[in-house]
């Protein structure tokens, strides 16, 4: 009965996509992408064994990326098929150079699943974090193709752990092994009789550590921060974050510097930031000859933030007064304490950093000012916070290595 309801839900979702696609760009892209995948399946062929990596969207791709990179480095004879559910992942990574084919995952019907698996004929499959598709998983199980859950995290409220969860548990039994992020996930699996898991952490930690090690010198940022010991690097900020930072900065004189990389870098938003500043500033794309004499650097270009964090002593991560904070790990890996707003609780690493005394959630500008002034006033306290952040990232690294050693 539940299988019938599941199949009905999948088909109703497809009908809904058809109805809303003329008015919704994401729905239109998903329908078009799924159609293209089906058309290409009849002609697809690979000269070598295939590994299939599936990610729902962009965030899950970043968790699967270290696995793909390791496969291509250590087992280059494997071909990689990378699938996405969401346009926000596919449209950004459709030209990812380490994947041999990038496509949308067709809707999870019995026919689609059988056809897709037969066409790509994977030797191994990696599903990232949250993805559980009944027909794909059961068909992979029937074909004796091992499926690994990467950076999986479970919550007690999920259907697997409810009294009515026996049908949903069938999908969990299709996995060869889960590499879960935390002990709680492992305990939940143990409670329902599933022991094929390892607490491996999150592969994103391996990714950010590799990025930090390979980051090049950003000369302009280095010159701006040269000689300063109170530099805040603010990443992916929105309006409420910027108001807090700018008001604090303008009350401090010239002894604190700010590098701000807003989430939106279009001209209108950059002008909004500039209109609030009453101190000397410049934009990354229009640098002065003497950047060290300025108090604010606005990073109005993409792709620089992860390398720029290393020029600060404290980080501020935006989004906490909106839908949710952005990436805290890119900053923490440089051994720096992190500030963010109140909407952080769905992000495990943010909760962990707070517990480790390496991060602070702030409610308003007064709280931010009080906390950061405490940090500036006590160098040993700053050193302790920084050490805690670095240790957390170091301890959480290693998931990719464990997965590669056991799956290959």
Topology diagram in text:
Blueprint: H1 2-20, H2 25-41, E1 50-55, H3 58-74, E2 79-84, H4 87-93, E3 101-104, H5 110-120, E4 122-128, H6 134-142, E5 147-152, H7 166-172, E6 177-180, H8 183-191, E7 197-199, H9 203-214, H10 219-225, E8 231-237, H11 239-250, E9 257-262, H12 267-276, E10 281-283, E11 296-298, H13 305-308, E12 314-317, H14 329-332, E13 338-340, H15 348-355, E14 359-361, H16 365-377, H17 379-396, H18 399-407
Parallel strand pairs: 1-2, 1-4, 2-3, 4-5, 5-6, 6-7, 8-9, 8-12, 9-11, 10-11, 12-13, 13-14
Question: What brief labels describe this structure?
Answer:
single chain; alpha/beta; Rossmann fold; 2 domains; 7-stranded parallel sheet; 18 helices; 14 strands
CATH topology of the largest domain: Rossmann fold
Number of helices: 18
Spell out the CATH superfamily of the largest domain. 3-Deoxy-D-manno-octulosonic-acid transferase, N-terminal domain
Average per-residue pLDDT, rounded, comes to 94
Low-confidence stretches: none
Q: What structural class do you assign from the helix and strand content?
A: alpha/beta
CATH class term of the largest domain: Alpha Beta
- Name the CATH architecture of the largest domain: 3-Layer(aba) Sandwich
Q: Can you list the strand order of the major beta sheet?
A: 3-2-1-4-5-6-7
Helix share bin: 40-55%
What's the alpha carbon Rg, rounded to whole Å? 23 Å
| Assembly annotation | single chain
Q: Please, how many domains?
A: 2
Task: Report the sheet-strand fraction.
Answer: 15-25%
Largest beta-sheet characterization: 7 strands, parallel
Distance between the termini: 38 Å
């Amino acid at each position: 009965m539940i299988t019938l309801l599941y199949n009905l839900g999948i088909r109703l979702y497809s009908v809904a996509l058809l109805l809303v696609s003329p008015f919704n760009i994401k729905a239109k892209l998903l329908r078009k992408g799924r159609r293209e995948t089906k058309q290409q399946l009849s002609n697809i062929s690979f000269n070598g064994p295939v590994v299939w990596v599936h990610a729902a969207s962009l965030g899950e791709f970043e968790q699967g990326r270290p696995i793909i990179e390791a496969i291509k480095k250590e087992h280059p004879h494997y071909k990689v098929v990378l699938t996405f559910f969401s346009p926000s992942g596919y449209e950004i990574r459709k030209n990812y150079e380490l994947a041999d084919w990038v496509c949308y995952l067709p809707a999870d019907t019995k026919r689609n699943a059988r056809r897709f698996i037969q066409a790509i004929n994977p030797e191994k499959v990696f599903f990232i974090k949250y993805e559980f598709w009944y027909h794909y998983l059961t068909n992979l199980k029937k074909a004796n193709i091992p499926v690994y859950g990467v950076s999986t995290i479970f919550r007690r409220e999920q259907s697997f752990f409810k009294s009515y969860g026996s049908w949903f548990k069938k999908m969990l039994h299709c996995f060869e092994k889960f590499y879960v992020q935390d002990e709680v996930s492992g305990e939940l699996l143990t409670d329902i009789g599933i022991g094929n898991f390892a607490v491996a952490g999150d592969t994103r930690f391996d990714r950010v550590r590799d990025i930090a090690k390979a980051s090049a010198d950003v000369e302009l940022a280095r010159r701006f921060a040269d000689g300063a010991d109170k530099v805040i690097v603010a990443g992916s900020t929105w309006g409420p974050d910027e108001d807090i930072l700018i008001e604090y900065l303008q009350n401090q004189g010239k002894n604190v510097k700010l590098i701000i990389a807003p989430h939106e870098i279009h001209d209108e938003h950059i002008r909004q930031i500039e209109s609030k500043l009453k101190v000397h500033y410049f934009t990354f794309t229009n640098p002065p000859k003497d950047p060290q004499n300025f108090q604010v650097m606005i990073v109005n270009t993409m792709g620089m933030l992860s390398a720029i964090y290393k020029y600060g002593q404290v980080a501020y991560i935006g989004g906490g007064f909106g839908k949710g904070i952005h990436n805290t790990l890119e900053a923490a890996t440089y051994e720096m304490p992190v500030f963010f707003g109140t909407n952080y609780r769905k992000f495990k690493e943010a909760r962990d950093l707070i517990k480790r005394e390496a991060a602070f959630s702030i409610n308003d500008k007064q709280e931010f000012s009080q906390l950061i002034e405490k940090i500036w006033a006590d160098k040993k306290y700053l050193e302790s916070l920084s050490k805690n952040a670095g240790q957390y990232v170091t301890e959480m690294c290693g998931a990719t290595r464990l997965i590669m050693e056991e799956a290959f």
